[in-house]
Amino acid sequence: xxxxxxxxxxxxxxxxxxxxxxxxxxxxxxxxxxxxxxxxxxxxxxxxxxxxxxxxxxxxxxxxxxxxxxxxxxxxxxxxxxxxxxxxxxxxxxxxxxxxxxxxxxxxxxxxxxxxxxxxxxxxxxxxxxxxxxxxxxxxxxxxxxxxxxxxxxxxxxxxxxxxxxxxxxxxxxxxxxxxxxxxxxxxxxxxxxxxxxxxxxxxxxxxxxx
Length: 211
Fold this sequence. Notes:
Blueprint: E1 8-14, H1 31-50, E2 56-62, E3 74-77, H2 83-94, E4 98-101, H3 110-120, E5 127-131, E6 137-142, H4 160-170, E7 175-177, H5 187-196, H6 201-210
Parallel strand pairs: 1-2, 1-4, 2-3, 5-7
Antiparallel strand pairs: 4-6, 5-6
Helix pairs in contact: 1-6, 5-6
């Protein structure tokens, strides 16, 4: 029987603001509609985290807090210019085993998170990674918080997950692969993910804004 690492769940979040959030959904959406979609995706992600037993629940936030932030979450500010720098700084600031999550996979469930934590806590596991079908990844977990795992890894590209795996191997970290998810970058992604997870606030919001 595996022993779960007392890991923190950390959501890398950008405050949903029209003109800054989900701009690749425009067109066909308007900026305010895209921001509503982003807020719904973030709310669904935080709900899944809130339902999952964890050492800590943390939002690493770029922007201002909003009504979407549930009780029981710590908030730390994102630091750094690039996404890689922000991820590395979040690892440093949390300072303990952690699972880093994005806010673009509203189909995330408690079961997926529990599986990720259990795999991270398994014997001989140093890291976990959950790929996305566009070449990125929706989560990375580290049993030891080492910010250098992101050194030299290009973010937001079709090779991000592959390069991240290579970096983990370079550091000698034994890595477990998690389920592959589709993240929401484009309107086609939004429609597909809403169909996969019709119970979510994300799906309801997309239906509302598209009529």
